[in-house]
Amino acid sequence: MSTQNFALQAWRKCSAWPGGKWLYSRLVCFQAPYFGSIRPRFQVLEPGRCVATLTKRRRVTNHLGTVHAIAMCNLAELAGGTMTEVTVPHSHRWIPKGMTVEYLKKATTSLTATAVLDPIPAFDEAAELPVTVNVEDRNGELVFRAVITMWVSPKKG
Predict the structure, then answer these.
(1) pLDDT (tens digit, 9 = 90+) per residue, 60-114?
(2) Terminal alpha carbon distance of the chain
(3) What is the Cα–Cα distance from 3 to 140, expressed in whole angstroms?
(4) Three-state DSSP class for residue 30
């Protein structure tokens, strides 16, 4: 059996094909259907880093015509969770424990979320793992930031 994470294996295989990033994004949304509401697209996925995008369209906007706050939360949780999934070793499991968010500017364009974990910890014991996700607009301006606290612990027998 491979020691490489299934989600990472699937990404590496799919992203090499034409349309593969779209396919991988659909597979993740099939596995976790709620994320399908924002129609995300993965751009980069590797241990310690995930970049995912959200296209601004009517379905994800609020009454002001900007990207809805909860759509940004969903994008952040998707990027942070998927990055965590491909980063933690097979011997461990993870679950989001909490999320703190900052709405920094109106989100008037499509968005790019970047989750980075640097340095990657040793995962020696159960611990809280803060994952920062920055969301930028098309102009590269930071519009939203989330810190998602992941609980990472060894799997039981």
Answers:
(1) 999 999 999 999 999 999 999 999 999 999 999 999 999 999 999 999 999 999 9
(2) 17
(3) 36
(4) helix
Contact yes or no for 82/50 (Cβ under 8 A): yes
Answering whether pTM is above 0.85, one says: yes
DSSP state of 141: -
Show the tokens assigned to 149.
């606290």
Write the CB contacts of 68 (distance below 8 Å, at least 6 apart in sequence): 60, 61, 62
Q: Are 72 and 65 in contact (CB under 8 A)?
A: no
Structure tokens at 154: 């060894």
Please calculate the CA angle 80-147-82 and round it to the nearest 5 degrees: 5
| Domains of the chain as residue ranges with CATH | 6-154 (3.10.129.10)
Contacts (Cβ under 8 Å, ≥6 apart) of 97: 128, 149, 150, 151
Tally of residues, the chain: 157
Bond before 119 cis per omega within 30 degrees:
yes
CA 117 remoteness from chain centre = 12
8 A C-beta contact, residue 154 and residue 90: no
